[in-house]
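Researcher: I'd like a structural prediction for the single chain below. Treat it as a standalone chain; there are no partners to consider.
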Amino acid sequence: MQICVPVRSPADLYQDLHITPKLIVVFSLCRQMALVVNVFNQVQEPIVHLYNTLIRAHIQNSQNSQAFAAFFDKQVNGVYHDNFTYPYL
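Model: Treating it as a single chain, here is the predicted structure.
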């Protein structure tokens, strides 16, 4: 009986929409914003939840202009805000 889940490549992990936001939150708490942006940029089709997580990470790390840039980038890419987007801004 196999107990452990097979190790996946980092590229596969970045496409997992349950893991990716958690990675962004952890890296943000560690003030590793370069890693936050790198993880986000690896996602092929980010959803609104992932954009909200990125925006919140920028705000929590006093990167307000990057947060607004992510907000506008989200709209340009056809991902529209939800009720959870504005409280971060």
